[in-house]
Protein backbone atom coordinates (compact mmCIF):
# COMPACT_ATOMS: atom_id res chain seq x y z
CA UNK A 1 0.00 0.00 0.00
CA UNK A 2 2.91 2.37 0.65
CA UNK A 3 3.29 3.17 -3.04
CA UNK A 4 -0.26 4.50 -3.23
CA UNK A 5 -0.51 6.33 0.07
CA UNK A 6 1.12 9.53 1.21
CA UNK A 7 4.86 9.47 1.73
CA UNK A 8 5.94 7.86 4.94
CA UNK A 9 7.21 10.15 7.62
CA UNK A 10 10.88 9.66 8.41
CA UNK A 11 11.48 7.49 11.44
CA UNK A 12 12.92 9.19 14.49
CA UNK A 13 16.64 8.49 14.66
CA UNK A 14 17.93 6.19 17.34
CA UNK A 15 20.41 7.41 19.94
CA UNK A 16 21.08 10.85 21.31
CA UNK A 17 19.65 13.79 19.44
CA UNK A 18 21.20 17.17 19.04
CA UNK A 19 19.20 20.05 20.53
CA UNK A 20 17.90 20.90 17.08
CA UNK A 21 16.74 17.34 16.46
CA UNK A 22 15.11 17.13 19.86
CA UNK A 23 13.25 20.39 19.23
CA UNK A 24 12.15 19.19 15.79
CA UNK A 25 10.51 16.13 17.33
CA UNK A 26 8.34 18.40 19.42
CA UNK A 27 7.27 20.54 16.50
CA UNK A 28 3.66 19.81 15.60
CA UNK A 29 3.31 17.62 12.53
CA UNK A 30 0.82 20.00 10.99
CA UNK A 31 -2.92 20.32 11.13
CA UNK A 32 -4.36 19.29 7.77
CA UNK A 33 -7.94 19.90 8.94
CA UNK A 34 -9.06 22.98 10.81
CA UNK A 35 -12.68 23.78 11.61
CA UNK A 36 -13.34 27.29 12.87
CA UNK A 37 -16.56 28.56 14.42
CA UNK A 38 -18.58 26.13 12.34
CA UNK A 39 -22.32 26.67 12.49
CA UNK A 40 -25.14 24.83 10.78
CA UNK A 41 -28.82 25.60 11.19
CA UNK A 42 -31.71 23.58 9.83
CA UNK A 43 -34.75 25.82 10.04
CA UNK A 44 -34.98 26.66 13.71
CA UNK A 45 -32.58 23.91 14.82
CA UNK A 46 -28.93 24.73 15.43
CA UNK A 47 -27.18 21.41 14.80
CA UNK A 48 -23.64 22.82 15.01
CA UNK A 49 -23.14 25.89 17.15
CA UNK A 50 -19.68 27.39 16.69
CA UNK A 51 -17.49 24.26 16.72
CA UNK A 52 -13.73 24.86 16.54
CA UNK A 53 -11.13 22.09 16.40
CA UNK A 54 -8.17 20.81 14.42
CA UNK A 55 -6.91 17.37 13.44
CA UNK A 56 -3.21 16.55 13.52
CA UNK A 57 -1.50 14.98 10.51
CA UNK A 58 -1.15 11.21 10.74
CA UNK A 59 -3.45 10.94 13.75
CA UNK A 60 -6.46 8.80 14.44
CA UNK A 61 -8.68 11.40 16.07
CA UNK A 62 -12.03 10.47 17.58
CA UNK A 63 -15.13 12.66 17.52
CA UNK A 64 -17.65 11.64 20.15
CA UNK A 65 -20.70 13.04 21.86
CA UNK A 66 -24.20 12.06 22.88
CA UNK A 67 -26.87 11.52 20.23
CA UNK A 68 -27.81 14.76 18.52
CA UNK A 69 -24.54 16.47 19.54
CA UNK A 70 -23.92 17.52 15.93
CA UNK A 71 -21.22 15.01 14.94
CA UNK A 72 -22.73 13.87 11.64
CA UNK A 73 -23.67 17.42 10.69
CA UNK A 74 -20.09 18.53 11.37
CA UNK A 75 -18.82 15.70 9.16
CA UNK A 76 -21.23 16.64 6.42
CA UNK A 77 -20.18 20.29 6.58
CA UNK A 78 -16.50 19.29 6.36
CA UNK A 79 -17.08 16.95 3.41
CA UNK A 80 -19.24 19.45 1.50
CA UNK A 81 -22.50 17.52 1.84
CA UNK A 82 -23.98 20.48 3.76
CA UNK A 83 -23.11 24.13 3.27
CA UNK A 84 -22.32 25.63 6.68
CA UNK A 85 -24.46 28.55 7.84
CA UNK A 86 -21.29 30.22 9.16
CA UNK A 87 -17.68 29.44 9.96
CA UNK A 88 -14.84 27.93 7.99
CA UNK A 89 -13.30 24.60 7.10
CA UNK A 90 -9.64 24.57 6.07
CA UNK A 91 -7.88 21.62 4.52
CA UNK A 92 -4.10 21.79 3.98
CA UNK A 93 -4.27 25.50 4.71
CA UNK A 94 -6.89 26.23 2.06
CA UNK A 95 -10.43 27.36 2.68
CA UNK A 96 -12.72 24.58 1.41
CA UNK A 97 -15.91 25.89 3.04
CA UNK A 98 -18.92 25.22 0.83
CA UNK A 99 -17.03 23.38 -1.92
CA UNK A 100 -18.77 20.43 -3.58
CA UNK A 101 -17.96 16.99 -2.13
CA UNK A 102 -16.18 15.86 -5.30
CA UNK A 103 -13.99 18.98 -5.29
CA UNK A 104 -13.08 18.32 -1.67
CA UNK A 105 -12.42 14.65 -2.44
CA UNK A 106 -10.11 15.69 -5.28
CA UNK A 107 -8.04 17.58 -2.74
CA UNK A 108 -7.61 14.40 -0.73
CA UNK A 109 -10.29 14.73 1.96
CA UNK A 110 -12.94 12.03 1.69
CA UNK A 111 -15.67 10.50 3.77
CA UNK A 112 -16.94 6.98 3.38
CA UNK A 113 -20.29 6.63 1.69
CA UNK A 114 -22.75 3.80 1.75
CA UNK A 115 -22.61 1.85 -1.49
CA UNK A 116 -25.37 3.41 -3.60
CA UNK A 117 -28.28 1.18 -4.66
CA UNK A 118 -27.33 1.26 -8.31
CA UNK A 119 -23.91 -0.17 -7.42
CA UNK A 120 -25.43 -3.24 -5.75
CA UNK A 121 -25.77 -4.94 -9.14
CA UNK A 122 -22.10 -4.45 -9.88
CA UNK A 123 -19.31 -6.67 -8.65
CA UNK A 124 -16.98 -5.70 -5.84
CA UNK A 125 -14.15 -5.27 -8.36
CA UNK A 126 -16.31 -3.04 -10.59
CA UNK A 127 -17.19 -0.96 -7.54
CA UNK A 128 -13.49 -0.50 -6.86
CA UNK A 129 -12.70 0.48 -10.45
CA UNK A 130 -15.48 3.09 -10.45
CA UNK A 131 -14.41 4.73 -7.21
CA UNK A 132 -11.60 7.08 -8.29
CA UNK A 133 -12.53 10.38 -9.83
CA UNK A 134 -10.81 12.57 -12.34
CA UNK A 135 -9.43 9.68 -14.34
CA UNK A 136 -8.50 10.34 -17.94
CA UNK A 137 -10.52 7.28 -18.91
CA UNK A 138 -13.69 8.87 -17.58
CA UNK A 139 -13.92 11.05 -20.62
CA UNK A 140 -14.87 8.93 -23.60
CA UNK A 141 -14.10 11.76 -26.01
CA UNK A 142 -10.58 12.11 -24.75
CA UNK A 143 -10.01 8.38 -24.65
CA UNK A 144 -10.29 8.12 -28.45
CA UNK A 145 -7.91 10.98 -29.09
CA UNK A 146 -4.71 9.66 -30.64
CA UNK A 147 -1.82 9.78 -28.24
CA UNK A 148 -3.97 9.58 -25.12
CA UNK A 149 -5.13 6.05 -25.79
CA UNK A 150 -1.93 4.56 -24.34
CA UNK A 151 -2.32 6.65 -21.22
CA UNK A 152 -5.85 5.39 -20.74
CA UNK A 153 -4.87 1.74 -21.09
CA UNK A 154 -1.96 2.22 -18.73
CA UNK A 155 -4.11 4.03 -16.21
CA UNK A 156 -6.78 1.32 -16.36
CA UNK A 157 -4.15 -1.33 -15.73
CA UNK A 158 -2.73 0.60 -12.77
CA UNK A 159 -6.23 1.01 -11.37
CA UNK A 160 -6.93 -2.69 -11.81
CA UNK A 161 -3.75 -3.64 -9.98
CA UNK A 162 -4.45 -1.18 -7.22
CA UNK A 163 -8.02 -2.44 -6.88
CA UNK A 164 -6.76 -5.99 -6.35
CA UNK A 165 -4.04 -4.88 -3.97
CA UNK A 166 -6.55 -2.94 -1.90
CA UNK A 167 -9.06 -5.81 -1.85
CA UNK A 168 -6.27 -8.10 -0.63
CA UNK A 169 -5.30 -5.56 2.04
CA UNK A 170 -8.88 -5.64 3.38
CA UNK A 171 -9.04 -9.42 2.87
CA UNK A 172 -12.06 -9.26 0.61
CA UNK A 173 -10.29 -10.22 -2.63
CA UNK A 174 -12.14 -13.56 -2.60
CA UNK A 175 -15.32 -11.50 -3.05
CA UNK A 176 -14.05 -9.59 -6.12
CA UNK A 177 -16.63 -11.10 -8.48
CA UNK A 178 -19.51 -11.10 -6.01
CA UNK A 179 -22.28 -8.53 -6.49
CA UNK A 180 -21.92 -5.74 -3.93
CA UNK A 181 -25.60 -6.25 -3.03
CA UNK A 182 -24.82 -9.78 -1.82
CA UNK A 183 -22.23 -8.73 0.78
CA UNK A 184 -22.93 -8.87 4.51
CA UNK A 185 -23.17 -5.56 6.38
CA UNK A 186 -19.62 -5.91 7.66
CA UNK A 187 -18.16 -6.89 4.28
CA UNK A 188 -19.86 -3.86 2.78
CA UNK A 189 -18.15 -1.63 5.35
CA UNK A 190 -14.80 -3.07 4.30
CA UNK A 191 -15.68 -2.38 0.66
CA UNK A 192 -16.69 1.20 1.54
CA UNK A 193 -13.28 1.73 3.14
CA UNK A 194 -11.51 0.05 0.22
CA UNK A 195 -13.34 2.26 -2.29
CA UNK A 196 -12.30 5.38 -0.39
CA UNK A 197 -8.65 4.34 -0.67
CA UNK A 198 -9.02 4.08 -4.45
CA UNK A 199 -9.52 7.86 -4.51
CA UNK A 200 -5.98 8.27 -3.09
CA UNK A 201 -6.97 10.35 -0.06
CA UNK A 202 -4.75 12.02 2.50
CA UNK A 203 -7.44 12.20 5.12
CA UNK A 204 -10.47 9.98 5.68
CA UNK A 205 -13.62 10.84 7.62
CA UNK A 206 -15.35 7.80 9.08
CA UNK A 207 -18.89 8.17 10.44
CA UNK A 208 -19.73 5.12 12.55
CA UNK A 209 -17.79 2.68 10.33
CA UNK A 210 -18.32 -0.15 12.82
CA UNK A 211 -22.11 0.07 13.11
CA UNK A 212 -23.56 -3.39 12.51
CA UNK A 213 -20.14 -4.99 12.04
CA UNK A 214 -19.42 -8.30 13.81
CA UNK A 215 -16.49 -8.42 16.28
CA UNK A 216 -14.15 -10.28 13.90
CA UNK A 217 -14.65 -7.78 11.09
CA UNK A 218 -14.55 -4.91 13.57
CA UNK A 219 -11.10 -6.03 14.70
CA UNK A 220 -9.95 -6.36 11.10
CA UNK A 221 -11.25 -2.91 10.17
CA UNK A 222 -9.56 -1.28 13.16
CA UNK A 223 -6.27 -3.05 12.38
CA UNK A 224 -6.42 -1.80 8.81
CA UNK A 225 -7.09 1.76 10.02
CA UNK A 226 -4.01 1.54 12.26
CA UNK A 227 -1.90 0.15 9.38
CA UNK A 228 -2.97 3.01 7.14
CA UNK A 229 -2.34 5.56 9.84
CA UNK A 230 1.20 4.26 10.20
CA UNK A 231 1.63 4.86 6.47
CA UNK A 232 0.73 8.51 7.02
CA UNK A 233 -3.00 8.69 6.40
CA UNK A 234 -5.02 10.86 8.79
CA UNK A 235 -8.36 9.72 10.19
CA UNK A 236 -11.24 11.43 11.92
CA UNK A 237 -13.54 8.81 13.39
CA UNK A 238 -17.07 9.21 14.73
CA UNK A 239 -18.09 6.19 16.74
CA UNK A 240 -20.76 5.60 19.33
CA UNK A 241 -18.87 2.83 21.08
CA UNK A 242 -16.81 4.64 23.74
CA UNK A 243 -14.44 1.72 24.27
CA UNK A 244 -13.48 1.71 20.61
CA UNK A 245 -12.68 5.43 20.74
CA UNK A 246 -10.85 5.23 24.08
CA UNK A 247 -8.75 2.24 23.00
CA UNK A 248 -7.87 3.40 19.51
CA UNK A 249 -7.75 7.20 19.30
CA UNK A 250 -4.80 9.20 20.60
CA UNK A 251 -6.80 12.39 20.51
CA UNK A 252 -10.48 12.76 21.28
CA UNK A 253 -12.84 15.68 20.62
CA UNK A 254 -16.11 15.68 22.55
CA UNK A 255 -19.10 17.52 21.09
CA UNK A 256 -22.22 18.47 23.02
CA UNK A 257 -25.13 20.57 21.81
CA UNK A 258 -23.27 21.60 18.68
CA UNK A 259 -20.15 22.78 20.48
CA UNK A 260 -16.78 21.28 21.38
CA UNK A 261 -17.07 20.45 25.06
CA UNK A 262 -13.65 18.92 25.70
CA UNK A 263 -10.53 17.68 23.93
CA UNK A 264 -7.64 15.49 24.95
CA UNK A 265 -6.32 11.97 25.44
CA UNK A 266 -8.56 9.12 26.59
CA UNK A 267 -7.60 9.52 30.25
CA UNK A 268 -8.34 13.28 30.20
CA UNK A 269 -11.73 12.67 28.63
CA UNK A 270 -12.65 9.82 30.98
CA UNK A 271 -11.94 12.00 34.00
CA UNK A 272 -13.63 15.14 32.71
CA UNK A 273 -16.75 15.87 34.76
CA UNK A 274 -18.30 17.94 31.94
CA UNK A 275 -18.08 14.93 29.64
CA UNK A 276 -19.56 12.61 32.24
CA UNK A 277 -22.42 15.09 32.78
CA UNK A 278 -23.06 15.42 29.04
CA UNK A 279 -23.43 11.67 28.77
CA UNK A 280 -25.70 11.31 31.83
CA UNK A 281 -28.93 9.71 30.79
CA UNK A 282 -27.29 8.24 27.67
CA UNK A 283 -26.57 4.54 27.46
CA UNK A 284 -23.04 4.23 26.19
P1 LIG B 1 -25.12 13.28 15.92
O1 LIG B 1 -24.52 12.75 14.67
O2 LIG B 1 -24.14 13.80 16.90
O3 LIG B 1 -26.06 12.31 16.57
P2 LIG B 1 -26.52 15.11 14.16
O4 LIG B 1 -25.49 15.97 13.55
O5 LIG B 1 -27.07 14.02 13.33
O6 LIG B 1 -26.02 14.57 15.55
O7 LIG B 1 -27.75 16.02 14.61
C1 LIG B 1 -27.62 17.21 15.38
C2 LIG B 1 -28.98 17.88 15.49
O8 LIG B 1 -29.38 18.38 14.23
C3 LIG B 1 -30.10 16.96 15.95
O9 LIG B 1 -30.97 17.70 16.75
C4 LIG B 1 -30.75 16.55 14.65
O10 LIG B 1 -32.11 16.24 14.85
C5 LIG B 1 -30.60 17.80 13.80
N1 LIG B 1 -30.49 17.52 12.38
C6 LIG B 1 -29.51 16.80 11.78
N2 LIG B 1 -29.71 16.75 10.45
C7 LIG B 1 -30.84 17.47 10.19
C8 LIG B 1 -31.56 17.79 9.00
N3 LIG B 1 -31.15 17.37 7.80
N4 LIG B 1 -32.69 18.55 9.14
C9 LIG B 1 -33.09 18.97 10.35
N5 LIG B 1 -32.45 18.70 11.50
C10 LIG B 1 -31.34 17.96 11.43
MG1 LIG C 1 -24.59 10.86 13.73
Automatic annotation (TrEMBL):
- Per its UniProt record, what CDD domains does this chain match? ABC_Mj1267_LivG_branched
The record's Pfam families line, in alphabetical order, gives:
ABC_tran, BCA_ABC_TP_C
Keywords in alphabetical order:
Amino-acid transport, ATP-binding, Nucleotide-binding, Transport
| Transport recorded as keyword | yes
Q: Which residues form a coiled coil?
A: none
Residues covered by the ABC transporter domain: 33-282
Transmembrane domains' residue ranges? none
Q: Which InterPro entries match?
A: AAA+_ATPase, ABC_AA/LPS_Transport, ABC_transporter-like_ATP-bd, ABC_transporter-like_CS, BCA_ABC_TP_C, P-loop_NTPase
Molecular function (GO) terms listed?
Answer: ATP binding
One of its GO biological process terms is:
amino acid transport
Q: Where is composition skewed (Polar residues) in this entry?
A: 1-17
PANTHER family associated with the record: CONSERVED COMPONENT OF ABC TRANSPORTER FOR NATURAL AMINO ACIDS, CONSERVED COMPONENT OF ABC TRANSPORTER FOR NATURAL AMINO ACIDS-RELATED
Its family? Belongs to the ABC transporter superfamily.
What is the protein's known function?
Answer: Probable component of a branched-chain amino-acid transport system.
Write the protein's name: Probable branched-chain amino acid transport ATP-binding protein LivG
Write down the species. Halomarina ordinaria
